[in-house]
Amino acid sequence: MAISGQQDIGIGLPNESANSDSLRTAFTKTQTNFNTLFACASPSYNSGLGIGIANSIITNTGVINIVPGTNITINQSNGNVEISAAGGNGNGSGGTVTSVGVISSQGSIIVDGSPITSNGNIVLDLANTGVTPGNYTYPTMQVDQYGRVITISNAASVGTVTSVGLITSGTGIQISGGPITTAGNITIVNTGVTRLSQGTGINLSGSNGNITISATQTGGTVTSVGVSSNTLTVTNATVTTTGTINIESPIGSSSENLANGSAANLSVTASYFTTTGASTATLAAGSNGQIKTFMMVADGGDMVITVTNAGWKASGTGTITFNDIGDGCTLQYTNSKWFCIGQNGVTFG
């Protein structure tokens, strides 16, 4: 440490007075410098805050280092330190709010712990409406503008209906399980048409609901054809879709010459024959109402005709024998059998 008040002694060459002190002046300066040096040899110190002195030892009793905490920044740890806050409103400063409070304007909320001026908790609870908690049957209740139930009470029952049942108003519906007096299920089954499928020549407008069925093939307007006659034999007289109407004359307008070993022609009414020896022929089953006649026009031997479904037999076939010229018979097919309705000289077997 420099000592203030030091005086310089000017020393010149022997017998040189310029720039030199006299002997008296030199000794005077020496004494003055000595007094100053002595006064500085045992100094006393006055220390401020943060400085400690003991036995001429100076110590720092204040801040020795600065460490930034949460939301704090410093520009350096020693010397002239600038400390900044990183929180607050974003510029290092705090907000302007000094307290926070909660109130209930309608009294529906209970508030406790309000206001908060530094830190703490505000407790909110619903105000008691006076309703007794529990389960209610058929309840009658009152609700306020906030949706809270403020009054509630049980009722004996609701409504006057004691049972529910269903009845059918037409065919196609089957109902079971009703009526219901407490709880249960009523089952409804469609017993009518459940689905329509279009076949050949049919068009459907839909699969459910009101369905129109149309024919895709155009036909005539005739729905049935019938034939009647007072003199002719008619079978299958009426045809409504398709079929064959059979018309037979009781007295045929056509005939055949029945040869030996042949089957009588059912398409003609009359069959005649001439024999030159023993001869045979057959007659098959006819159609109901059909007439058939046989005549021998020349006799060279007997003619035996075997008849299917003979009416003169309990069942099976029978025979008709012709043995003289002029022998003949008339047969009619009735009830699936041939019956003789007239004959001359023939024998039935």
H/I helix tally: 1
Question: What is the C-level CATH assignment of the domain at 248-348?
Answer: Mainly Beta
Mean pLDDT value? 80
- What is the CA-atom radius of gyration, in angstroms? 73 Å
What level of helicity do the residues show?
A: under 10%
Structural class: mainly beta
Strand content: 25-35%
So, CATH architecture of the domain at 248-348?
Answer: Sandwich
What separation lies between the terminal Cα atoms? 179 Å
Widest sheet: strand order? 17-19-21-24-25
Verbal overview:
- Helices cover 5% and strands 30% of the residues.
- The strands form ten sheets. It has a five-stranded mixed beta sheet with strand order 17-19-21-24-25, with no helix packed on it. Strands 18-20-22-23-26 form a five-stranded mixed beta sheet, with no helix packed on it. A two-stranded antiparallel sheet has the order 1-2.
- It is built from one helix and 26 strands.
- A hairpin with an 8-residue loop joins strand 3 and strand 4.
- The longest helix is centred in the N-terminal third of the chain and has 19 residues, at 23-41.
- It is mostly beta strands and 349 residues long.
- Among the domains are: 1-62; 248-348, Jelly Rolls (Sandwich).
- The protein has one helix spanning 23-41; strands spanning 51-54, 57-60, 72-74, 83-85, 109-112, 123-126, 140-143, 149-153, 173-176, 187-190, 202-204, 213-215, 225-226, 233-235, 238-239, 246-248, 255-257, 262-263, 270-274, 279-283, 291-298, 303-307, 318-322, 328-334, 337-344, 347-348.
